[in-house]
Amino acid sequence: xxxxxxxxxxxxxxxxxxxxxxxxxxxxxxxxxxxxxxxxxxxxxxxxxxxxxxxxxxxxxxxxxxxxxxxxxxxxxxxxxxxxxxxxxxxxxxxxxxxxxxxxxxxxxxxxxxxxxxxxxxxxxxxxxxxxxxxxxxxxxxxxxxxxxxxxxxxxxxxxxxxxxxxxxxxxxxxxxxxxxxxxxxxxxxxxxxxxxxxxxxxxxxxxxxxxxxxxxxxxxxxxxxxxxxxxxxxxxxxxxxxxxxxxxxxxxxxxxxxxxxxxxxxxxxxxxxxxxxxxxxxxxxxxxxxxxxxxxxxxxxxxxxxxxxxxxxxxxxxxxxxxxxxxxxxxxxxxxxxxxxxxxxxxxxxxxxxxxxxxxxxxxxxxxxxxxxxxxxxx
Length: 380
What we know:
This protein is α+β, with helices and mostly antiparallel strands. Helices cover 33% and strands 18% of the residues. It has 14 helices and 13 strands.
């Protein structure tokens, strides 16, 4: 597909997959960080030979022909379920590939809380990939590494955002029998820069180093949406400013609000997500607040694998369109104060900046709620 960003330089046209940099035969393109912390391709005209390969390798499109089956799914292993963000589907897929002497690609924190793609060949190491990280991962050299493992005839599981998964497919140019691609149904991608500022402020406020951020800890139940900050001295605190700003569309990459993959037609073999709205879609399902996955099986290859692994889960088929009605099946607009937030990113404390930009919306929500309550009272 033609790379629209390299024609228009409109930031909504680039999801940051890095594929155009890989496609350049003279290494004339590099990813450059903008003031918001997002990376975009930049061409060195002195090295460019005008071959146009970068403009014809873009993966920011969705040519999926559909999704085969959609399930409510829960990992039967209680320990694996507890350590997962939702219903534990990643762990089941990872074990399937590892048991075939395969390699699993996923997203982890490094020692500096930078979020990056990495790969492991043991299930114990793959535990680093469990849990949600609500920011854009550094894909590094993962596309080439996946290709190298496949050429060694190894099984590979690749997990990432839909745009990263589609970039891998575009890079490989063909399907491999031993390649399993699973995307995480994505809400948006904040930048590492914003997250770094957030962590630094927490450290300065508490005079100690943050060890990790559990965005989706189940200490208070699956439905609890308050992240837990864990410090190196073992102390923990609940703090939800960043997570609230993320959920209110204040922090996302511009392309996330014009995402080509936020539909029920998936571009991967499997897709996984929290099954929000389960009470409406399957009201009879017992929900003990330990986590439930939305798990989609998107093609014949995935159907075969699903039959091999579904004995490890409790599952029930659901209507596709109804399920995605509650689970990011369409694009959402950016928060009206998004630009204001990023304009002040380097000038104000980031937590104060987030709260200030969200304050008006909070007041309006309270007023709307008061009006609804008043109508009910007056109607009685």
